[in-house]
Specification:
The chain is α/β, with parallel strands linked by helices and 797 residues long. It is built from 30 helices and 25 strands. The protein starts with a strand and ends with a helix.
Length: 797
């Protein structure tokens, strides 16, 4: 097994922190392996500090990936390319990302061609957002959130440093329950290091009793509440011989600010701020402290607590986040927001020698659970497990998947989606395709997959022994057989629309099976649903509020897992196991010369600006608003054209043509009708701005919007649903209200008056697609989920 370790941290100040200690401890543990099978490689920048690994340098293969660059998008791309080269050049099996979230290092942008594991120390900036993300520069906050979102996508395993962090990561990334394996840190300051009784340090720090607070000026360290708790203790007059020693680095400004706080709160001279404490002095402070006081608001682990426990110091710590895991019953846990409670706990330890002695003994014993040897061994176990079981060898049986979906030549967005997904997913699993009777998939599918009609599924089920069945569900009749089969044979559902009511209504009531429609509504909404259904049937199929009654309940309940494409849709679903896998797209590069050729071919030469709206269009697409806004722009832009590229619902088309004529736009608006993929892409390349309004939304993710962004087009959308998740830096939003038309017109005009802004938005759009939506990453996420699903089924047997 060849392990490549991300060594960027060796070029940063973080080597003096717990992050650096964790890295060096596990590195040194890996370097001790002499089994003839494990090779250790360290990816570093040219300026790395080699002295830090001097003790085991002979056991490490150094891979220099270039000159250190500022952590930004270009550097991340260069770093990713360097890691991919290293993996391929050295035949790496496992890549360990040691420090993914700090802003002074880069995180790989894409999955690399080997198993990948990342250590996660904490998600504190996200969890205490008001103290961090909200105060950071906007670009820094965006980058942090992007990295958190990327963690699950680019890794096969996550290695959080506490169970608390594991839970936080699962909530933040949607990572599956089996993905995280906790590897606790160990402390280099433990009971095995001789006691420090240096008389010079006694002279420096004095011989009064003291409470040691190894916190800092970081807001989460809760320094002011710690001082308030000490003031309560001091005001009681029972411990006049006890000081509060605050051991942390600080500059002169911080020292003055804190001195002012102490003066305002009248705490006086019994609080000592040490400034930076080197390790030998920190050891002395641990060895002579009466109690360790650590009321932190949040910790990913809490290394100072473990260090103190290793020296047998009684501990009073916050009962929050990871600290209860570390302290257990070996110390006193308090509410860090309550100075009175903290003061009472400190008083108990300082006043009761028997309790102090018992806590010292318990601290030493508890600390043995977190040794450095155990930490290195646990990390090695993760690497070996990932190498041995992280995925099937090339010669082993591939997972067998039955795949229900519309496929080209069927005219639906889900068919296009499946075409792109299947092209990549087939490299990971064996797939049989199931389509409606009478549908013959395009030749490319028949050459690469076994194709069956849906009616053959049950006969094939026993013989083929599929490991998993995937059902794509949307709100039209193309998904009928998938829905019916799902109810008999549960599997993974890809829910493309929140509202399935049109599908259910079509295959029941509109075909004359009114009893089935009533039964579906009653199943989902009880007696109220039954009344709504009967009212619909008795009043000539009057309109039903489909957002209130989406009729997705039976499908979601039948599914073992539901895949959705947006957090918006996940939040709307209140039941089941829901996973977000973004809709797929790859960036498209069309140069100006090619776009010019397309314009000439399509009769758009000389037109500027071209506003485009794409895809199937019905009343939900709000074309009236777009047409009226466009009409307002025409006097300023006489060469402007409005491009409605796609099929328009027949009844709606009549209304739209009438409006176009009424606004005098007959020679400026082009309705193309249905477009095959090649012509669709040509029309997309011609647009200067893409407008994609939609209300109400059915919970869908817009494929045409993603196409626009992939082509690098500035986009304007309705401020609803999943559209809100697309960043403003590439996609502007208009509210659906009385000002909708005016705001849309103003946005378009604002862009047209600022070509540099249009260019920047276009670049941002492609970058966003590259970061979040690339098809290869989407296929990899599907494969991870399929593996988890199959593994969970095996455990159930």
């Amino acid at each position: 097994m060849k392990i490549l370790v991300d060594g960027q941290t060796l070029s940063t100040p973080d080597m003096a922190r717990g992050i650096g200690d964790y890295l060096l401890n596990i590195l040194s543990g890996l370097a001790k392996i002499k089994d003839g099978e494990t090779g250790l490689y360290l990816a570093v920048y040219e300026d790395y500090d080699g002295s830090l690994i001097k003790a085991f340098a002979s056991e490490v293969n150094i891979v220099v990936i270039g000159k250190r660059l500022k952590a930004d998008a270009a550097a991340s791309r260069a770093y990713t390319d360097g890691i991919v080269r290293a993996v391929k050049d050295h035949g790496i099996d496992v890549f360990w990302i040691t420090n993914p979230l700090m802003p002074n290092v880069n995180l790989i942008e894409d999955a690399v061609p080997c198993r990948t594991v990342a250590t996660v120390y904490d998600l504190i900036p996200l969890l205490l957002k008001d103290k961090y993300l909200d105060r950071w520069p906007a670009e820094m906050s965006r980058e942090y959130l992007a990295r958190v979102a990327r963690l699950d996508r680019v890794t096969d395993r996550l290695m959080p440093i506490s169970e608390c962090t594991a839970r936080d990561v699962a909530r933040a990334t949607g990572a599956g329950p089996g993905k995280a394996k906790v590897v606790y840190p160990g402390s280099k300051i433990d009971d095995g290091v001789p006691r420090n009784d240096d008389p010079a340090l006694r002279q420096k720090y004095g011989d009064r009793r003291f409470i040691l607070y190894p916190g800092g000026f970081d807001p989460r360290k809760n320094m002011e509440n710690a001082a308030r708790a000490f003031k309560i203790l001091a005001d009681e007059g029972r411990h006049d011989n006890v000081d509060l020693v605050i051991a942390c680095a600080c500059d002169e400004n911080a020292r003055k600010t804190f001195a002012s706080f102490l003066e305002e709160t009248c705490i006086g001279g019994r609080v000592r701020l040490t400034g930076y404490v080197p390790e030998p002095e920190l050891l002395w402070l641990y060895d002579h402290a009466s109690v360790l006081f650590f009321p932190s608001l949040y910790e990913g682990f809490g290394l100072p607590v473990l260090e103190a426990m290793g020296r047998g110091v009684p501990v009073v710590a916050a009962g929050r986040a990871s600290l209860p895991e570390i302290v257990g019953s070996a110390g006193l846990l308090v509410d860090p927001a309550d100075p009175e409670e903290m003061a009472a706990a400190l008083d108990r330890v300082l006043s009761d020698p028997a309790l102090e002695g018992r806590l010292r003994d318990l601290s030493r014993k508890r600390s043995l659970r977190f040794s450095r040897e155990k930490s290195a061994a646990a990390a090695l176990e993760v690497f070996r497990e990932l190498h041995d079981t992280g995925g099937p060898p090339e010669n082993s049986r591939k997972i067998k998947v039955a795949y229900f979906s519309p496929l080209p030549p069927q005219k639906t967005g889900v068919a296009v989606y499946s075409k792109e997904l299947l092209t990549r997913l087939k490299d990971y699993v064996s797939i049989d395709l199931f389509t409606d009777e009478g549908v013959t998939p395009d030749p490319g599918f028949r050459e690469q997959f076994e194709c069956h009609c849906c009616g053959e599924y049950e006969a094939l089920l026993e013989r083929k022994r599929y490991d998993v069945t995937i059902y794509h569900l949307g709100n039209n009749v193309f998904h009928e057989r998938a829905y019916v089969t799902l109810l008999r044979h549960p599997g993974i559902v890809v829910l493309h629309d929140y509202v399935l009511h049109p599908l259910i209504q079509h295959i029941t009531a509109l075909r004359g099976d009114t009893a089935a429609y009533v039964a579906e509504m009653k199943y989902a909404y009880g007696e109220q649903g039954e009344r709504i259904a009967r009212g619909y049937l008795e009043q000539d199929f009057r309109r039903v509020d489909m957002m209130q009654y989406p009729l997705n309940e039976r499908a979601v309940n039948a599914a073992r897992c539901v895949i959705v494409h947006s957090q918006y849709l996940k939040d709307m679903l209140t039941r089941g196991v829901i996973r977000v896998i973004p809709h797929g797209r790859d960036p498209v590069d069309i140069d100006a010369e090619t776009a010019g050729k397309y314009k000439k071919e399509l009769g758009l030469e000389g037109a500027w600006p071209i506003l485009g709206c794409y895809g199937f269009m019905n009343a939900n697409r709000r074309l009236e608003v777009l047409i009226d806004a466009f009409a307002g722009l025409v006097p300023r832009y006489p060469a402007a054209r409005l491009l409605l590229a796609g099929e328009v619902e027949p009844h709606y088309k009549t209304r739209i043509l009438d409006l176009i004529k009424k606004r005098g736009l007959a020679d400026r608006a082009l309705l193309t009708g249905y477009l095959d993929e090649a012509r669709y892409r040509k029309y997309m390349a011609c647009a200067d701005i893409v407008v994609n309004l939609r209300y109400p939304t059915m919970g869908e993710t817009s494929g045409t919007l993603l196409d626009a962004l992939a082509f690098g087009k500035p986009a304007i959308v309705s401020n609803v649903g999943s559209y809100r998740e697309v960043p403003d830096r590439c996609c502007w939003k208009v509210d659906v209200d009385v000002y909708e038309k005016d705001l849309l017109e103003a946005y378009v005009a604002g862009l047209l008056e600022n070509p540099q802004l249009m260019e920047t938005m276009g670049k941002n759009a492609r970058a966003y697609i590259h970061e979040y939506h690339r098809w290869e990453n989407v296929a990899r996420e599907y494969y991870k989920l399929i593996r988890e699903y199959v593994s969970s089924k095996e455990h159930e047997r």
